[in-house]
């Protein structure tokens, strides 16, 4: 996740998408929370897909969502009203 996000932020979309595909393939045999995929989509600037996956992570009860309010990777999402809605659902007002 971190590698894919870093590649996306650095402008290396091809490498970020490669990391994304690897995580998606891994999801077929192991538990990989949708939060990890969301982080790469945030780096790629794909907010709609990031929010879809973050909401899926909420339904998966991913415990790392408790850090969403302070997580720097989420900075590009903060101005979107969906971000506050998600924080409210998680209980991070």
Distance N terminus to C terminus? 26 Å
Helix content: 55-70%
Helix-strand pattern, N to C? HHHHH
Low-confidence stretches: none
Radius of gyration from the CA trace?
13 Å
Count of runs of 4 or more consecutive helical residues: 5
Portion in beta strands? under 5%
Let me know the number of strands: 0
Average pLDDT score: 97
How can the largest sheet be summarized?
A: none
Count of domain modules: 1
Shape: globular
Your description of this structure?
The protein is an all-alpha fold. It has one domain. Helix 1 runs antiparallel to helix 2, helix 3 runs antiparallel to helix 4 and helix 4 packs parallel to helix 5.
Task: Give a brief description.
The protein contains five helices and no strands.
Features:
93 residues, mainly alpha
What's the layout of helices and strands?
Elements: H1 2-9, H2 13-26, H3 34-43, H4 47-59, H5 81-90
Helix pairs in contact: 1-2, 1-3, 3-4, 4-5
